[in-house]
Amino acid sequence: MAGGKLLSEKQSAELATRLSAAYKEAHYYLNFKTPIDLVVAAIISAQTRDETVNRLTPALFAKYKTAKDYANAKPDTLTNDIKSVSFAGNKAKNIISTCKAIAEKYNGKVPDTMEELVELPGIGRKTANTILINAYGKIEGIPVDTWVIKLSYRLGLSLNTNPDKIEVDLKSRIPERLWGKFAYVLKTHGKTLCKDVPICSKCPVNGICPKNGVTKRE
Ligand code: SF4
Predict the structure, then answer these.
(1) Cβ–ligand 1 contact at 208 (below 6 Å)
(2) Alpha carbon of 115 to those of 68, 125, 128, 193: distances in Å?
(3) Which of 11, 78, 105, 184 would give a disulfide with 73, using CB separation of 3.0 to 4.6 Å?
(4) By alpha-carbon position, which residue is closest to atom 3 of ligand 1?
(5) pTM over cut 0.85
């Protein structure tokens, strides 16, 4: 993304505070009960709609309860269990290798530190942040997904394209008390008002937002 206006730190904090207040109900979008459920749901969710993942996971979580259950699954069987999602074969392989590592190295318990999580196959910073926040209530950073990448630029919170750099920018500009939900606030905002053709006239941050890259708006 070339060019664009970056908000000042003060404006960024104001924008994040207003948006967070407007979407108090925003929350993580995948259903899970245990940390291992969340690891599996996060792997399945790549390039797949949340609703599709949430439709599939109740039966999956009833069949496989522990890291060892997934680690011992036959790839063909697990692929068949998740066949309603895209790239089911690759995702099944990733689930098995990630769960093998959790079963062998951590005795079946999903680790609860960033350093350990990102060492696991198939887990990057985005998923690690998601697990820490939603499974363990540990807020060390902000998960940078496609919504966060798109809206951070549009709203002038970061002009970077690399997710790790975007996270650094967001952490330096957004009050820490808002980090835990900020990715879900942005996603809700993107689905509600800040769509491909954004409805700026109804937006709570119209007036602060630089609308980077927006060519058409309501
Ligand atoms: S709806 Fe418009 S004003 Fe609001 S955040 Fe999106 S681009 Fe900015």
Answers:
(1) no
(2) 22, 9, 9, 36
(3) 78
(4) 206
(5) yes
